[in-house]
Amino acid sequence: KDMLVNNKDGILNWFDEHDIAVVDRGFRDSTGMMRALELDVCMPDFLNGRRRFDALEANRSRFTSKIRWVVESANGRVQHFKWFNQTIQNSTIPQVRDYLQIACALINAYRAAAISSFSNDDRIAAKMLACFHEPNLLRILLNNETL
Q1: How far is residue 75's CA from residue 80's CA, in Å, rounded to a whole number?
Q2: Pairing of strands 20-22, 40-42
Q3: Main-chain phi, psi angles of 18, to 5 degrees
Q4: CA-to-CA distance for 25 and 46, rounded, in angstroms?
Q5: pTM score > 0.90 for this model?
Q6: Cα 64 from chain centroid (whole Å)
């Protein structure tokens, strides 16, 4: 949130109006600020005391999680470096960007690409979108049956 408020490193120049910010629940305190900056925020839903999501909420959360997989996969690759897989001391914050650039350069130079094929992307996306508004048939069946 502080990075957005103070425009650290010119971060606001990275965004255009109505860009989509796909975030995890750890950013829940920043979503208001992101929306005020006219970003469209996608974050998995919270149960808020309920036992389960309705079908639409569950599908929306699944969509967000599937998109976030790409980010988490990249984070996992960086965390293979021992230094990044621990709590980082505040005194090293000024160097973190340099260390991250070095780690990413090494990953790009010596590791296989995280995603090797994009040939099915459109087909998979179309199938996901087609199923988005599908009801939870198992839940309906269980609600209608007396067990």
Answers
A1: 9
A2: parallel
A3: 70, 20
A4: 8
A5: no
A6: 6
Residue 21 in contact with residue 40, Cβ under 8 Å? yes
Give the integer Cα–Cα distance in Å for 99 and 80.
13
Sign (positive or negative) of CA dihedral 39, 40, 41, 47: positive
Domain boundaries of the chain, sorted by first residue: 1-43, 49-147
Per residue in 16-71, pLDDT (tens digit) is 889 988 888 888 888 898 999 899 998 888 888 888 888 888 888 888 888 888 88
Percent of the chain with pLDDT over 90: 20
Query: Which region, left, alpha or beta, applies to residue 15 given φ > 0 means left and ψ of -120 to 50 means alpha?
Result: beta
Is residue 39 exposed (0-12), middle (13-18) or buried (19+ Cβ within 10 Å)? buried
Strands (E) in 7-109, as ranges, are 20-22, 40-42
Classify residue 68 by burial, with Cβ atoms within 10 Å: 0-12, 13-18, 19+.
middle
